[in-house]
Amino acid sequence: MPAPGETVDPSRVHALDPDQLAAAVAAARESIRAAADLDALAAARTAHVQGAAAPLVLARRELGALPREERADAGRRHNAARAEAQAAYDTRLAELTAERDACVLVEERVDVTLPAARRRRGARHPLSSLSDRLVDVFVAMGYEVAEGPEVEHDWFNFEALNMAPDHPARSEHDTLYVEPTDSGRVLRTHTSPVQIRALLDRPLPVYVVCPGRTYRNDTIDATHSPVFGQLEGLAVDEGITMADLRGTLEVFAQELFGSGLSTRLRPSFFPFTEPSAELDVQCFACRGEAARQPRQPCRVCSDEGWIEIGGCGMVDPNVLRATGVDPARYSGFAFGMGLERAAMIRHDVREIRDFVDGDVRFGLPFGIEV
Ligand SMILES: [Zn+2]
Hints:
With 370 residues, the chain is an alpha+beta fold. It folds into two domains: 10-107; 126-366, Bira Bifunctional Protein, Domain 2 (BirA Bifunctional Protein, domain 2), CATH 3.30.930.10. It is built from 13 helices and ten strands. Strand 7 (263-270) and strand 8 (273-282) form a beta hairpin. The structure holds zinc ion.
């Protein structure tokens, strides 16, 4: 910058010439108009209007080099040129901002009518639900829930239940033994050992319901499975009679299959009850009509009119003695049923394998806590 009185070098103030300023403004306009987006526009502004190397910024630095009398004019010219470039920038900025906002509105549009992505929560297994429901029936009548080990000692599973080692009923159980074979341990073939444990563990009177998994050496087919669920009940008290058993099972059968259905007991045999009986309930589908009118076949009861749902009887005095209960003072009844069988009848399931295949679609139609 020249000192006062120094000769002015015309080449240094050339940038403030009207023509040069107009050219700088034209270049700025061109670059600003050509900016395709906000980033390009910012770069154009730096190059032509604001940056340290921008011609308009460089031109302003030359003001001081002019003779004093020319500075005011040159300053006005420069201001006008800068304002023109700034106006071009402001206009393009407004255009590009509007374009970007319009794009954002389209790209980030949310369709509030789209269905939400739902996760299936799965369903409770139909057997678990049935077991809980049946247990609730007995709990409502004052029973307690009792459970026991699935690997059981021979004494609990057979001997205490009036099945000595040579008892012929043992062979019907198709028992699975735990190695070594003389270990005396078996996979329990029924839930009855839980009744023995209840009588040993609990003070009398005893009212227990025992749901659980049991095992037999059965080949799996449409109606047999080596693993199946049972539900048993036991009541031991003073003065218990067969009438108590009948009344209890009637309440239970109606809870399972619906009200207004008759029940009947048919004589049977179990080593641990005497007398023993099979419990039948009137067919809930035909209400016994299929047996009376053969022209209306019923798939549920095979035209029998009755459905067998379990075994029962008065507890054999030998079982009471085995657990230290005086049969002269106490008596009791016991009953048991297969859970899969009850569920198959109740829901018309034709294949027992469906319960263990693990296909969630099988459980969903039961509509249980999905
Ligand atoms: Zn029927």
